[in-house]
Amino acid sequence: MTKVLYLISCAAPPVRSIATGIRKAQAAGWEVCLVLTPSAHRWVEPDLAELRELTGHPVRHEYKHPDSADVLPPPDAILVAPVTLNTLTKWADGHADTLALGLVTEALGLELPLVALPFINRAQAAHPALARGVSVLREYGVTMLLGEGGFVPHEPKHGDVGSYPWDAAIAALPA
Ligand SMILES: Cc1cc2nc3c(=O)[nH]c(=O)nc-3n(C[C@H](O)[C@H](O)[C@H](O)COP(=O)(O)O)c2cc1C
After folding, report:
1. Is 18 in the pocket of ligand 1 (CB under 6 A)?
2. Is 9 in the pocket of ligand 1 (CB under 6 A)?
3. 36 CA to middle of ligand 1, Å?
4. pLDDT digits (tens, 9 = 90+) for 68-106
C-alpha cells in the first residue's frame, strides 16, 4: 500500500516551486499531502488548484472547524521543507498556532518519522534560538538536515532555490 507523506512547507523561497519537492517524493513512492503555513499559502495562492491536482488532495493551511471531518489520510511520515527560522524555533518551543505547527508538535509525541530541511541565510542561522531549536528537535528524533549533506545556510540575498537539496530530504525518509 502507498505510504502517505505530509509535506509541510513554510514561507521561504523553495515553497514557490514546491511542485518540485512533491514530484520527487511521488517518484520515490509517496502519496503526498501538502500542508502550508498561512504565510506560505499566501505566497503560492495562484498555484493552489494545480497543487491540489498534483497531489490529489486538498491543500490545507489552517485548522479545521471541530465539527468538520478530516480531509487528509493520516501520515506515515512528515517532511518539513522548507522550514523557516520562524517555524523551526516555534516547533522546538511547542507553539501550535498554525496547522503546520500543530501537526509537527504532535508528531514528536506520536514518534512519527520526521525529517526537516531548513532554508535560511547565514545571518538567520546565527540567531541563538536556531541552534537551541535544532538541538531540541534532534534530541527528540527529528532528522534535521542542516549542515554538510543537507542544507548549508547561504549569504543573505544569495539563496539558490535550484540547489535546494530535496533529494537528501527524500533519501532521509523511511523506506
Ligand atoms: C521575500 C522573503 C524571503 C524570505 N526568506 C526566508 C528564508 O529564506 N528563510 C526564513 O526562515 N524566512 C524567510 N522569510 C521570512 C518568513 O517568510 C517569515 O518569517 C514568516 O513569518 C514565516 O512564516 P512561517 O514560518 O509560518 O511560514 C522571508 C520573507 C520574505 C518576504
Report:
1. no
2. no
3. 13
4. 999 999 999 999 999 999 999 999 999 999 999 999 999
How many residues in total does the chain contain? 175
Mean pLDDT in residue range 121-146: 98
Superfamily of domain 3-64+73-171: Flavin prenyltransferase-like (3.40.50.1950)
Q: For 137-142, what is the mean pLDDT?
A: 98
Nearest ligand 1 atom to alpha carbon 159: 8
Model pTM score: 0.98
